[in-house]
Design a protein that fits this description.
The complex is a heterodimer of chains A (449) and B (67). Helices cover 38% and strands 16% of the residues of chain A. Chain A is built from 15 helices and 17 strands. Chain B has a two-stranded antiparallel ribbon with strand order 1-2. The chains are: A alpha+beta (449), B mainly alpha (67).
């Protein structure tokens, strides 16, 4: 599987064409036969048209951009001109088509990337599992009997499964970082508000962000630069690293903790106060805002919602306003306290707390109790969303074994340091993508997570 | 500083309680004009109970017992 960096270089210097790359990508998607339940719509005509435009630009001596001819897909909640934005729900099957692309897609097109598909997700992005009543449950490329995580599960599985070199997802409470962790790829939630949300269907607007998935730190940097309109300069100053302690060291896989301690031995262990309250506040804010978004539709055609999502949304709509206000007040105070993390360039923490749970038994163990994976896989990501700080999920290198991921948490606007640190760890062989193979999965990993 | 009242579900000081009984759910739904079919009530009630647990954690200075 070629990386985005390799494809763009080959297209720009004429070693191949965007049309050839896109045709190969489309053939791969068709050949997969939706084995991963990752792709919801294949945009054949659009992709071919964009690829021809790239090749025409090159033939005319015009630089098509740093992502020239790189195919990608987007979570089903990005506006794509001419298509209904379904947000993974049958509720919007008959919605009018979007008049224009989401701003993020517009930027990627300007950089030469080629949109080839829309991708599966939890309905309205409300979940951590991509268990979708409309399209089915997205499968983990490393073990098709396991979850890919969510809510951007289709975006993660498409990259991890080699269908395309990068994708876009969204992250409210961990919906990029959790599936990146479970499928063993890179995914970033940016500093809150750093990437454009125009044309993105909301889950909880005050917490929502978009973010890309990729198979290497270099690819992620290239995509980040195109989306953010910034350049990540080569850093020369040392990167100050700390480890996140307290509740983040509970409910983590021992191999995650061992990796964190190997990466930054002897580094300070810092704590965020009141993590449990932060997660609960995030839970309440998400429920209330999501309920508000769908209140009108629930009043008129509740039957068309996935019952599991419907009941969550109705419950959220019924939350007292005063409780929501208190949760937001707590969030503001928590974010102020989290500013103490700014003493460091990178703070290490687990991403998802475990390997991917089985689809047939989608439960995880938290504090010694069984919890629903679709609700609780974000135990370590949700509190970070409440801080507004950027967090990059990276895969521990463990070929032949089910993926485990870490979060690299940065200061506000500190994405360049996170990307540099990830590239360094990748070069050292500590992290990196391991292609799905016929896994010789250890017996303990076949047990319910 | 927000004015608070006693939460009937927890006995703690906090905002208006999360509706968890069928009567309280019906009242809250009527206030916002959201009809809740009887067949939806078990699922809605279960989700509200979960949210009430998170409200308990948020409102308790040292955190509650739920995850």
């Amino acid at each position: 599987v070629l990386t985005a960096v390799e494809i763009a270089a080959a297209v720009r210097n004429g070693r191949t064409t965007a049309v050839a790359i896109v045709e190969r990508c489309l053939a791969g998607i068709h050949a997969d036969g939706n084995r991963l339940v990752a792709v919801t719509r294949i945009l054949v005509d659009r992709a071919r048209g964009e690829a021809r435009a790239i090749d025409a630009a090159i033939a005319a001596g015009v630089d098509p951009g740093p992502l020239a001819g790189v195919p990608y897909g987007v979570k089903d909640l990005f506006d794509v001109a001419g298509l209904a934005t379904t947000a993974g729900s049958a509720v919007f099957d008959d919605a009018p088509p979007a008049a224009s692309d989401a701003e993020a897609i517009r930027r990627l097109r300007g950089a030469g990337a080629v949109l080839v598909a829309t991708l599966n997700m939890d309905e309205f992005a409300y979940g951590f599992a991509t268990i979708n009543a409309r399209h089915g449950t997205t499968r983990n490329p490393h073990d098709l009997t396991r979850l890919a995580g969510g809510s951007s599960g289709g975006s993660a599985a498409a990259v991890a499964g080699g269908l395309m070199p990068f994708t876009l997802g969204s992250d409210t409470n961990g919906s990029v970082r959790v599936p990146a962790s479970l499928t063993g790829i890179f995914g970033i939630r940016p500093t809150h508000g750093a990437l454009p949300m125009a044309g993105v269907f909301p889950l909880a607007e005050s917490l929502d962000d978009i973010g890309p998935f990729a198979r290497s730190a270099a690819d992620l940097q290239l995509i980040w630069e195109a989306l953010s309109g910034t350049t990540v300069a080569a850093g020369t100053s040392p990167i100050r690293v700390a480890r996140l302690g307290g509740r983040f060291r509970d409910n983590a896989d021992p191999e995650q903790l061992a990796a964190i301690d190997r990466i930054a031995p002897g580094s300070p262990i810092v704590e965020l106060p009141e993590i449990r309250r932060a997660r609960s506040a995030g839970y309440l804010i998400t429920a209330a805002e999501a309920g508000m978004v769908h209140r009108a539709a629930l009043a008129t055609h509740a039957m068309r919602f996935d019952p599991a999502t419907r009941d969550r949304l109705i419950a959220g709509a019924l939350l007292p306003r005063g409780l929501y206000d208190m949760a937001q007040a707590f969030r503001a105070d928590f974010a102020r306290k989290a500013a103490a993390l700014a003493d460091y360039d990178v703070v290490l923490a687990p991403a998802a707390p475990c390997i991917a749970p089985p689809i047939a038994d989608p439960w995880i163990t938290i504090d010694g109790e069984r919890r629903m994976a679709r609700r609780d896989l974000g135990i370590h990501t949700q509190p970070i969303s409440m801080t507004g700080l950027p967090s990059l999920a990276v895969p521990l290198r463990r070929p032949g074994r089910l993926p485990l991921g870490l979060q690299l948490i940065g200061r506000a606007g500190g994405e360049p340091a996170l990307l540099r640190f990830a590239a360094m760890l990748e070069a050292q062989g500590v992290i990196g993508v391991s292609p799905p193979t016929d896994l010789d999965v250890a017996d303990e990993e076949r047990m319910p997570a | 500083v927000r004015e608070v009242q006693l939460s009937s579900s927890t006995g703690r000081v906090g905002p208006e309680p999360v509706p968890v009984t069928d009567g309280a759910i019906a009242t809250a739904a009527a206030v916002i004009g959201l009809p809740v079919a009887a067949s939806y009530l078990p699922g809605v009630r279960a989700n509200l109970a979960l949210l009430a647990g998170h409200a308990d954690i948020l409102l308790a200075p040292t955190g509650g017992s739920a995850c």
